[in-house]
Amino acid sequence: MNKKPDRYRYPAFLGLDETTGRYYILFPDLPGCTTTGDTEDEALACAREALSLHLFGMEDDGDEIPAPSPFMGLAGENGEAVVLIDVWMPSFRERMETKAVNRTVTLPGWLDREAKTAALNYSQILQDGIMERLNISRQVSRFLGNR
């Protein structure tokens, strides 16, 4: 398995949309990775989140991640400022791996009533059942969440 970089740095264009009055960020090396904000600071913060999420998705899909363009010599088409966005991925990956996800389950009505009467925690029972089926202990699940 290839080691994923801990840090990525990509140049981006920061501009102001005169129509909306919002700032936008575009990443020339990562088509589709863009964000906006009401202020420059908000747009830059959103850019870090957008870049992290975009790169995490590419890593997760096994896509080839392009090398960033050299910062020097870049110029936006509409007078945008060139900014360098830096993201630290280990903490972002951990957040994504440990975040809760919703799953819909279907139960017969009588079983749902009995479970509610017994004050059962569906999420805990489902987690325990899946880990038992996969023969995964709580200790191993903590390790797997940090891959």
Description:
This protein has helices at 40-61, 89-98, 109-117, 122-133, 138-144, and strands spanning 7-17, 22-26, 34-37, 81-88. With 147 residues, the protein is an alpha+beta fold. It has a 4-stranded antiparallel beta sheet. A hairpin with a 4-residue loop joins strand 1 and strand 2 (22-26). The longest helix has 22 residues, at 40-61.
Task: Lay out the secondary structure.
Layout: E1 7-17, E2 22-26, E3 34-37, H1 40-61, E4 81-88, H2 89-98, H3 109-117, H4 122-133, H5 138-144
Antiparallel strand pairs: 1-2, 1-4, 2-3
CATH fold type of the largest domain: Double Stranded RNA Binding Domain
If strands are numbered along the chain, what order do they take across the biggest sheet? 3-2-1-4
| CATH class (first level) name of the largest domain | Alpha Beta
Cα-atom Rg, whole angstroms?
Answer: 22 Å
State the total count of DSSP E strands. 4
Integer average pLDDT: 87
Number of helices: 5
Shape: elongated
Proportion of helical residues: 40-55%
Task: Provide the structure class.
Answer: alpha+beta
Percentage beta strand:
15-25%
Largest pleated sheet? 4 strands, antiparallel
Between the first and last Cα atoms, what is the distance in angstroms?
11 Å
SSE string, helices as H and strands as E: EEEHEHHHH
Architecture (CATH level 2) name of the largest domain: 2-Layer Sandwich
The unreliable regions are none
Tally of structural domains: 2
